[in-house]
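Reopening this one. Same input as before:
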Amino acid sequence: MSCRHGALPALLLAACALPAAAGDVVQPQWNLRLRHEHVADDAFARNAGATTLRLRAGLRFAWADHWQALAEAEGVAADGRYNSGANGRVGHPGVADPAGAELNQLWLGWHGERAKATAGRQRVQLDNQRWLGNSGWRQNEQTFDAVALEWTPVAALTARYVWLDRVHRVNGDDARDPLARERDLDSHALDLAFAHNDQQWGGYALAHEDRDVPAASTLTAGVRWSGQYAHDGGGNRWGWRVEAARQRDHAGNPHDFAHAYWLFEPSLVRRGVTWRAGWEHLGGDGRHALQTPLASLHPFNGWADKFGVTPAGGLDDRYLAVAGKLGRGAHAGKLSWTAAWHDYRADSGGRYGREWNASLGFPVRGPVTGLVKLADYRSDGFARDTTKLWLQLEWTRP
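Same output, byte for byte:
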């Protein structure tokens, strides 16, 4: 695995050459995840079954009070009949967890009392990851060759800036489509967050230039507001999240467009159960739609992953969700469950379908946790009926 790639070779090589000198603090960290994913998609005559084992391991170095670095690799072993994007099994449904091994993170960082900076290949997550994230659900996460700066002039205000030079996508280095492996970028993200009591305000801008696919270049700017307040003394509370943004063509994009984004999500926590209702809108005009190519896509618009690319007609996702914890005795509160329902419609008219999601997370032993997860999508003309089931065990050493 070479450290020389992208426009940050000097920084990456510097991190590669970091010595473990006397007095340095070297901390190993690793994560092991075993998952089976079953997919029944009516667009295919055969079902998919993917059993994958992911090991992510690295060394974190800290020295001279303010400096640290991380070198981390990950490898995925896979078995089963599914289309990973790299194995050529195009007659089976896709599961974007290909086998392979690659450098995941390699960065050098500095932190002070009110500011910090990180340069190199790294995990980048802004706010709820709707616009910029690491796609952590996939076995091979999405990372970036980037420079990230953060400044907190006062406790309530945080400003973050990230320059993105290259994105290493979840499809891995062996994907048959070269554009699915990684993209050459010149993208800039700015995020401002202000918190006061139980309310948070924020604003952001993402100037995304994709040098490999100019038609994917966009400029997105938006604002958000969230908060909560207690309506009695028993821990019950109301909450909300409101967000609005505008996306238009940018850099060398040959298209001319402007699309709206909004999210309205009220919530209620009552007796330890969280209830949410939401309406997320991704604008589209029938020829082109708002896109979020650098986001963590799986948490949004249903776990069946039918809308990773927004249809040209746009997307209205109206949903209800409920989540809580279960368990008795030694396991009290350690079983986490979620259920959600989505209704998908086009911005320009028409329906796409409906979807149910459910999950149960549970402790196994010590740092080992388990997860059972289900997604059931019923089509109203967009794509085909699809059911997905996941069984997972995960072992983490921080």
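So the earlier flakiness isn't reproducible anymore. For the record, The mean pLDDT is 93.
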